[in-house]
Amino acid sequence: MPPPAMQPKAKHLTNRYFISYFYSQYSVLNKKMNRFEPYTNEPMPAHNEEDDVEVQQVVQEQQNRLINMDWCKCQRCSHMASFDECLCCTEIIAIRETLERDQEVTGPVTCITEHPGFDPVCLNVWTLQLSIGRGRRHRNKSINEKYRHASYKNFVRWTHGYLGRGNRTILPACVVKTIRNHFQSETYVGFKYPNI
To answer: Which one, of 101, 131, 130, lies nearest residue 115 by Cα?
Structure first.
């Protein structure tokens, strides 16, 4: 027998109606009891000046990367359009691992663009033609745009492995500069975050 609060108010309800009425009342009561409204009566957190200082430091670092080249350790990078793209190959773990992995064969290399594998993977036209294939995606692009896009993809595959469809990573400035110099175009797009 349900508790008195759950018993039907009307005496003429049959068992079938009683069961449905019971469950409907039980679900309403259950929802009221389990309602969770965080911070309903909690005071707002106090303003923290340390957070403001950290934000100012991050903004200052971003502006510095756009102004000067202190962030480049390989000495082959160039200024890029956005803060995100101002990235040296020595700052990316996957690229450092590629350089360390191949160090016995290549000797000491300071930049990934100096690696003996960079030219055949990213700049060789025959390799890039294989990567482009016969897809419809590149139909309206110039040949240099096709090669540049395939070169970027080959570089990511070589250093990071397969990321999966729609997943992107920012390329270092030295790689972008070398590929753009090799496959020139009138306009460049730069890195775009994927649509969510």
So the answer is: 101
Residue-wise pLDDT for 153-170, tens only, equals: 999 999 988 888 878 888
Rounded Cα distance, 158 and 95, in Å: 9
Provide the 3-class DSSP secondary structure of residue 74. Answer: coil
Alpha helices in the chain (DSSP H): 15-33, 49-67, 93-101, 103-106, 118, 125-132, 143-160, 173-182
What is the domain range of residue 172?
69-182
Q: Bigger pLDDT: 132 or 178?
A: 178
Number of domains in the chain: 1
Whether residue 63 is contained in a domain is answered as no
Q: Helices 173-182 and 143-160: crossing angle, nearest 10°? A: 150
Q: Give percent helix, percent strand, percent coil of the chain, each to the nearest 5.
A: 50, 0, 50
Quickly state the pLDDT bin for 121 (edges 50, 70, 90). Answer: very high
Residue 97 falls within a domain, yes or no?
yes
52-104 tens-digit pLDDT: 777 788 777 877 778 888 888 999 988 888 888 888 999 989 898 888 888 88
